[in-house]
């Protein structure tokens, strides 16, 4: 699946990795719903101990596409500096990642 991180580019992420990404997405959704800004920041974009964030997981699991290649993105994730309100606007009933 082609995933775009806003402001960074596109990555090709194998479907087999989406269970891990969905677990992080569920955590992010809970933090958004509770207004937990610190938890939201940690889960969206920074490393905490040995645990990685949603964006870090996508970067680790995906293969970057060359800048000159532009494929339709099946999934668009907010950039690391996105606010709670910006991410809330991007949410579906399943969070940022369907499934």
Q: What is the end-to-end distance?
A: 13 Å
Strand content: 5-15%
Strand segment tally: 4
Largest sheet: 4 strands, mixed
Poorly predicted sequence stretches spanning 5 or more consecutive residues: 46-51
Helix-strand pattern: EEHHHEEH
What does the model show?
This protein is an alpha+beta fold and 99 residues long. 41% of the residues lie in helices and 13% in strands. The protein has helices at residues 18-34, 37-45, 54-61, 84-90; strands at residues 2-5, 9-12, 63-64, 75-77. It starts with a strand and ends in a 9-residue tail after the last helix. Mean pLDDT is 81; it is low at 46-51.
Task: Please render the helix and strand layout as text.
Elements (H helix, E strand, L loop, with lengths): L1 E4 L3 E4 L5 H17 L2 H9 L8 H8 L1 E2 L10 E3 L6 H7 L9
Parallel strand pairs: 1-4
Antiparallel strand pairs: 1-2, 2-3
Helix pairs in contact: 1-2
Provide a short characterization of the protein structure.
With 99 residues, this protein is an alpha+beta fold.
Q: Could you list some keywords that capture this structure?
A:
alpha+beta; single chain; 4-stranded mixed sheet; 99 residues; 4 strands
């Amino acid at each position: 699946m082609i995933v775009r991180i806003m402001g960074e580019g596109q990555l090709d992420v194998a479907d087999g990795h989406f269970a891990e990404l969905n677990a992080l997405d569920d955590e992010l959704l809970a933090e958004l719903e509770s207004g937990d800004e610190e938890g939201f920041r940690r889960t969206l974009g920074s490393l905490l101990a040995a645990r990685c964030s949603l964006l870090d997981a996508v970067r680790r699991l995906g293969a970057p596409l060359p800048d000159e290649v532009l494929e339709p993105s099946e999934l668009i994730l907010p950039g690391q500096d996105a606010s709670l309100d910006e991410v809330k606007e991007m949410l579906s009933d399943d969070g940022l990642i369907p499934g």
